[in-house]
Design goal:
The protein is of the alpha/beta class. The protein contains twelve helices and seven strands.
Length: about 300
């Protein structure tokens, strides 16, 4: 999954996995849930996040955040599920969280049907959560750690600023300013997944938080905009440079042809004549002089053509 969006999704799950279980319709008390550290397993290092649910019969929740289309996602879901089952010996519920319509595809049906040449056909099932189809109120009224996802939900354009203000109000009400700052950072970092640069700027400006431009999420968006602008400028400059270079090369080539053929016909040009030829930078004029070489009687006649004046 594309950075920095995967980092935002992972952090939200790490902060409060109980909120995600509630969102998925399987609420559990926080003390019954623990995030499996990626340091403890090569499997969880590959997968986005894995949560252990300590029910009387424990099970694992694997959440994979996806911001952009990846045609290998269903196969990866199956691979992670099997690897986690083999590693931990526990049933695994696998959920793909699509954070943007850009990650969507009809093939993400939640099932993979396998019909091997030998043995019985079987089906692997996983859950697909499309954030943009979920009511925004679920996030505004849910766990505080889900607030950064609010504007990725189903928000009508006229309601975007109101929803952003609601996120800000709830974050301000938190008793933990460090957590509030972290959630605001993730909130602003995720905005470009759904909105263009102009809308992101409008949302951020509307929040009216002093020093918000120093927020890591906003700063990342600003830096991205600057980098894109610089990249576009560089690409345009390189293109213009290549075009200009090709034209200059053709000018030099035409001038060399005139000098070589003219010397063969009229003899070596005087310094004044040579300087006059060197001063001509218009490719069309030089091409006209090349055509006139056949009929001109000397250097003066050649360079006295109307096109060179």
């Amino acid at each position: 999954m594309s950075k920095p969006f995967d980092a935002g999704g992972k952090t939200l799950l790490e902060l409060a996995p109980a909120g995600w279980l509630a969102l998925l319709g399987a609420p559990r008390p926080p003390e019954a849930i623990s995030v499996i550290s990626a340091d403890l397993s090569t499997v969880t290092a590959m997968a986005d996040q894995v949560v252990r649910v300590n029910d009387p019969e424990p099970w694992l929740l694997h959440v994979e955040f996806q911001a952009h289309w990846d045609d290998t996602l269903p196969q990866r879901m199956l691979a992670y599920n099997g690897a986690l089952l083999a590693k931990h010996g526990l049933p695994v519920a696998t959920v793909a969280v699509l954070m943007s319509p850009a990650a969507n595809a009809r093939s993400l049906s939640g099932t993979i049907h396998v019909a091997p040449p030998l043995g019985e056909p079987w089906t692997f099932r996983y859950s697909v959560l499309r954030l943009w189809q979920m009511p925004v109120q679920m996030f505004l009224d849910g766990a505080a750690t889900l607030l950064p996802l609010a504007l990725l939900a189903d928000v009508r354009k006229p309601d975007v600023k109101r929803a952003a203000a609601a996120v800000q109000d709830r974050l301000r009400a938190l008793n933990d300013p460090v957590l509030a700052d972290k959630l605001m950072s993730i909130f602003t970092t995720l905005l470009p997944l759904r909105y263009n640069d102009m809308t992101v700027q409008d949302i951020v400006s509307g929040l009216g938080i002093r020093g918000l431009e120093q927020n890591p999420g906003v700063k990342a968006w600003i830096d991205r905009g600057l980098a894109e602008g610089q990249a576009k400028g560089l690409a345009q400059g390189m293109l213009e440079g290549r075009v200009e270079g090709r034209v200059e090369g053709r000018v030099e080539e035409a001038r060399a042809i005139i000098l070589r053929l003219g010397t063969a016909r009229f003899g070596k040009p005087a310094k004044r004549t040579f300087a006059k030829l060197e001063a001509i930078t218009d490719l069309a004029v030089l091409e006209t002089l090349t055509d006139r070489l056949i009929h001109a009687t000397d250097w003066k006649d050649l360079l006295s053509a109307p096109a060179t004046k």
